Amino acid sequence: MSMDDLIAAARVSKAWPFEEARKLLKRYPDGKPGGEPVLFETGYGPSGLPHIGTFQEVLRTTLVRRAYEAMIGARPEDGRTRLVAFSDDMDGLRKVPDNIENKAVLAENLGKPLTRIPDPFGTHENFAHHNNARLCTFLDQFGFSYEFVSASDRYNSGAFDDALRQVLRKNQAILDIMLPTLREERRKTYSPVLPVSPTSGRVLQVPVEVVDAEAGIIRFTDEDGAMVEQSALGGMSKLQWKVDWAMRWYALGVDYEMCGKDLTDSVTQSGRIVQVLGGRKPEGLIYELFLDEKGEKISKSKGNGLTIEEWLTYGSEESLGFYIFPNPKSAKQLHVGVIPRAVDDYWQFRATLPTQELDKQLGNPAWHLLRANGGFAAEKAPGAGDSLPVTYGLLLNLASVLGTEASEASLREYLESYIGAGKITPEVEVLIGTAVAYTRDYIAPTLSKRAPAGNEAAALKALDAFLATAATDTSAEDLQTEVYEIGKREEFGFESLRDWFKALYQTLLGSDQGPRMGSFIALYGVENTRRLIAEALAKT
User: Fold this and answer.
1) SS3 breakdown of the chain: % helix, strand, coil, rounded to 5?
2) Tally of structural domains, the chain
3) Judging by DSSP bridges, how do beta strands 193-195 and 147-150 pair with one another?
4) Is there a domain that residue 522 lies in?
5) How far apart are alpha carbons 131 and 44 in whole angstroms?
6) What pLDDT score does 50 carry?
7) Average pLDDT of the chain to the nearest whole number
């Protein structure tokens, strides 16, 4: 695949990252003026611990970034794009998150900028820095290329001062945009600029008079009733959310930023404000939100969504990216139950990648995920030959059958017996550990093997008779064929093969679903499987 082939195919691909990237081609047909890199941004509010909703925005934005690079024939190292991960850590803390210990530290500092509140975990300089570090740790682990930018650093250092002066100059025009969108009571206190109280250090929601826009001087009533005249520059104020977002686009020159559908109105109003400031609204995608297993919106403060650490305890990094990739405009539930299928589906797509034509590759989630961290050359087929020797589902079934004996060592021993010593790849090694953890926490407590019914017992005896004469190295396919043949025999009376397999799963594995039995028998071993059958028949 040549670069020219990639450019041509990318510019007509229907995959959603390319559809998004085409917006930037239309925005800059001849490239960004002055040869500046196209700037992508993601935003993060560090008032609570980072969750997968935060991570997915960085991933999806990166996928669009890489798609745009493919369209213009750029490589990640060319510097023709930038990604800024922006933390709104100058925001005043409005409430104490539910999933934080030592809540008293936060409760005592409500209203203060997040970077001016002690860290309740006691590991960082302040609360925001703790949460920012959690976010960056995972982004670094995944291999994202990004620049972390702190709102507090920009406000406090004066880097935003010129943009703040422009907000003060346009104060009335911004009010004209915002006030009609607010309830009457809110209009009385609304101001584009939120001063920081010189006495309490809290970010105040009070009316503000612009005294001198060029000097950055504002006037307001402090919490103690005193009239205060002070600078809005150098960290002495923070902008109201929608104004802040627009100012950021204006100050940084942001070209692309996506957001959740809960910010649809914010996109509209911030887009109008950035034009008033003299800037341009970025391109972007409004995506659907993740839901928890009850169908409720995931919230940082409630802590009702999966954490990044939880997903990686039970699944791989690639599977997380795979689950996030499809249909960003469709809501999807996010809970531990989706992890096993995400793991196997990812590897299924990755295994087909090398055999696909280029246009099909560009629609394959694995192609985009392998490009996410710039990990391969554009001219090469990514992931060539990559596949798993066994499915993750099969590993989980093996671990569940082993029960209390399940460990990484025992799974590794069975795998090496099946695929050969020394053939366990780093990817499989990761899945061995996650399979043990997932089985221990979510499968083992739910398993319950039932006794086989009369016809099921007869079929199990037939399977046992076959296995008694089968060679220990009988292939998984031959084993599967015989399992099929037994299930189709009229004497056992199964209405469908599905009923036969369900009986195998419920009596031998203790669950309603399971693996290809031929593969399971080959992995677990013929004699071990016969012992399972004997235990089941003993219950009749």
Assistant:
1) 55, 10, 35
2) 1
3) unpaired
4) yes
5) 10
6) 64
7) 91
Q: Dig out the tokens for 271 from the structure.
A: 């887009």
Distance CA 35, CA 53 (A): 33
**Domain housing 504:** 454-537
d(CA 31, CA 33): 6
pLDDT of residue 379: 43
Residue 265 phi, psi dihedral angles, 5° rounding = -65, -35
Averaged pLDDT, 280-288: 96
Q: Which positions ≥6 away from 509 have C-beta within 8 Å?
A: 397, 400, 401, 447, 449
Question: Which three-class secondary structure state does DSSP give residue 290?
Answer: strand
Amino acid symbol at 223:
E
The residue assigned the tokens 């087909």 is 352
Q: Is residue 459, in this structure, part of any structural domain at all?
A: yes
Contact 373, 382 (CB under 8 A): no
Q: What is the largest CA-CA distance in the chain?
A: 94
SS3 510: coil
Question: Average pLDDT for residues 523-539, to the nearest whole number?
Answer: 94
> pLDDT value at position 101?
78
The confidence band for 373, taking pLDDT boundaries of 50, 70 and 90, is confident
**Secondary structure of residue 39 in the 3-state scheme:** strand
Is residue 494 assigned to a domain? yes
Rounded to 5 degrees, what angle do the CA atoms 211, 212, 217 make? 75
- Report which of 396, 330, 378 is spatially closest to residue 68, judged by C-alpha positions: 378
* pLDDT computed for residue 380 by the predictor: 47
**Encoded amino acid at 195, one letter:** P
**H/E element holding 374?**
none
State residue 376's pLDDT score: 43
Indicate the pTM of the whole model.
Answer: 0.88
Residue range 403-410: mean pLDDT, rounded: 87
Say if residues 193 and 235 touch (Cβ distance below 8 Å): no
- CATH number of the domain residue 484 falls in: 1.10.10
Task: Tell me if 466 is assigned to some domain.
Answer: yes
In tens, the pLDDT along 311-357 reads 999 999 899 999 999 999 998 888 899 999 999 999 999 999 989 99
Residue 299, SS3 per DSSP: coil
